[in-house]
Amino acid sequence: xxxxxxxxxxxxxxxxxxxxxxxxxxxxxxxxxxxxxxxxxxxxxxxxxxxxxxxxxxxxxxxxxxxxxxxxxxxxxxxxxxxxxxxxxxxxxxxxxxxxxxxxxxxxxxxxxxxxxxxxxxxxxxxxxxxxxxxxxxxxxxxxxxxxxxxxxxxxxxxxxxxxxxxxxxxxxxxxxxxxxxxxxxxxxxxxxxxxxxxxxxxxxxxxxxxxxxxxxxxxxxxxxxxxxxxxxxxxxxxxxxxxxxxxxxxxxxxxxxxxxxxxxxxxxxxxxxxxxxxxxxxxxxxxxxxxxxxxxxxxxxxxxxxxxxxxxxxxxxxxxxxxxxxxxxxxxxxxxxxxxxxxx
Length: 345
Ligand code: IMP
Ligand code: MG
Prior knowledge:
Helices cover 28% and strands 22% of the residues. It is α/β, with parallel strands linked by helices. The protein starts with a helix and ends in a 7-residue tail after the last strand. Magnesium ion binds at residues 23-24, 52-54, 259.
């Protein structure tokens, strides 16, 4: 009897991408790469909204997506999940821009009927923020209203009707054998619970946040952590060490300006303890460390550990150190990818 019930139980498979730092670590590139190389039936954005800016190179052309999941570039069903905050007008604008750029979206974009809507009032209120340095996309007030049970959900917006789906229906009734990529936004350091509160966003940016979109824990396959070889942060807290010209150089070489707001990103060395913590708490099984090319060009090889800066003679000693520090998290050398290109992993 027990055996029978196990073999009849088909569960959706879910891979997750999750940023282990403060956003902007190159998730757009990694999700695009995964979508190109693995066979997904769906891509679902699981948190955040128009605050995100994912830079994607597709067929030699640069795109920046904010709310639309990367699946549209490959004709894969692309869902804005229940963990997101959706701005319908910005979504329609983004769809038009993608279409103008030659990306076909028709019949590919879906919206969870229970996702909360960013209202004009939410954007106006967020526009007045002087404390956190938000992206002013209405994110905080939207999640606040959601939890105050005064929010507006997609199901009540007539112009979203053609896009609406019920996530239970999609994955548990219609497509039990779905293979899904969960596309994360923001990052562990910006997570509402685990980030540096109050300098955080208002959503669950961890791999657990993907599950909150209605996926059972058994569905999880690989969790792709994404980090940069150095760190960046945009917002109002002090993050970049003062009077160190190397960070100005890294900012220019790495083009560290917000994809959504154009603000300069503050830079600092990789915090290895934060990376270890994020890898552990997110259950990372594969890790991509981006922008080794930028470190090469800046010719600076440093990380932070226990409040001190540790220097290395070059890329290889630093990579070896990272491998050694992450081995106890269960990450083997073959599971850690150091990327030197903005366009591929
Ligand atoms: P909010 O998400 O717009 O409320 O902004 C809260 C904080 O998160 C601010 O410091 C933003 O700069 C930061 N933030 C939000 N989204 C992103 C992102 O996609 N990348 C990097 N930082 C972000
Ligand atoms: Mg970004």
